[in-house]
Structure of Protein kinase C:
Amino acid sequence: DTHDSSFRIPSPAPPPPAYENTVRHSQTPSTASTMLVGNRGASPKVIQSLNNALSGRGHQFQHVHLNAPTKCGHCTSILVGLDRQGLYCQTCHYACHVHCSSRVVPQCPVPPDARRPLGIDPLKGVGTAYEGLVKTPRAGGVKKGWQHTYVVVCDFKLYLYDCVTDRQNKANEIQPVIRQVLDMRDPDFGVTGVSEQDVIHANKNDLAKIFRITTSQIQGSSTTEDGAVTRQYTLLMADSQEERKKWVIALNELKTLLKRSRLAERSAFTVKVGGDKSEYSLRIETSLLLLQEVFDVASLPSIRVAQCAVVIDRTKVVIGFADVGMYCVELDRDTLVAVGGEKENKGRFVEKVEFNASEQLLLVMVGPPKERHVRLVPSAALDGRDLKWIKVSVITVGVIKRIQSSEYYVASNLEQGLEVTFQVAETKGCHLMAMGAGSMTGSASAGSAGNMHYIAVAIKKSVIVYQIDRSEKRHKKWKELAMPGFPQSLAIEGGRLVVGFTHSFRAWALGDQSNTKHICRRSRSQELMFPSTPRPGGFAHLSPHLCVYSENQIDVFNVMSAEWIQTINLRWVNAGFRCFSNSLAF
């Protein structure tokens, strides 16, 4: 093992204490020596304040970008994240989480007897208990071969990292980004050996070295022909039969420890099994999602071209398709209803859909890229009655001589052959949309700005904001904002319009303009740390939770506490779906 020349482990230091669940092993690239790997960045004011409080008598912390998995010196958990994973002391090379920095011993360097025990703290559920090198199937399955994977058991989760091995079959280059997370808090989590029927493409000589991890399965149909609930399996292969036995025993003991610890349940989602079906439901104030139990590719082939979905209530989910428009799924009757009637949906490409329960309106992005525009659909259309989708635009009065573009059409009879009323399709060519409530004021009355709801549409380098009203068209133009760049994301949250760009974001108050001094100002030092690289546009905010979609899972964060609270093992899920169903995702 190699060490940076500027870092030396004190030779007489005794081994650190450890919990009983700790498995000791030789030095790896994941141990303290890698705390130096990475680039240090400038400290924010909160870190400067911490350093100033120590008056030069303690650590000099800076944010650090790590290029290899690294443990926190205080809690021994992995410093998870894509960037700025933690803090780094320039003097003693001590690394820790931002939230652990206030509890770190101020003495620099930290004395060995002040170190936290290795392993997982059974009372808090944090720490690293086990790590090692295994193999996992390649993307095409076992028949495509196996790839080296470095596994770290941390915080009752398994982190799977891509890695490169040397000639001695030791990991010498571990990628900093987690490829896959397996959560031991999953109610169906289990570790067992395999039989020949479980891995039919594996070499028979490798069977004794292979073990599998079981997690909840919510992909497609939830039951088999005999009524048994299906599960999801992840295969791992150790170097030898003895190593496989160690892994199985260690993981099962940790699962037992987790049950005995009775840690507080923080999951946003849970799998409930009742009778012969398993259903995935929200534990927050959102509808129960049973869509995967109603339709799959076999019963509804059109699900293959589904583009988006949104939950209306406990019995209805609206799905947008690439060629047949938008349909409402009535879960209690297992039926599909054309939103606004069959004629209104014929041949329509629905790319995105959002629902505003307060205004009982659907906001829909319709059309191929060159003809893309936004329409409003009243919730009354969900029962299949013939209702026109309202085009989001502006009614303008002009002179007949000025009407030259085919985009304008006459909406009223000519008066004296001079003046007409025509409509401009302002949202044509849009690429983002959002809908939400404006900021409330203490004295807001009915109809005031504080009670207004808004629509925002991004077109090239501008964002047009509309107010939702009670007129026939249900909207009117409120403001057009020029953007400093091409908007990458758009949202209306907490009474504010938030626009994200490649390297920054901006926010505007909607409605109440009296208290804007804190907009876009940092309010805390803790940051959200994504364990895996998100998919493009792979975010969904279901307050107070943020769902981050990556290739192998959905990671759920509590935005208010900046905590990573759950991992859902679903592969290649489309973030455009506000309900978690693999039938929709594929």
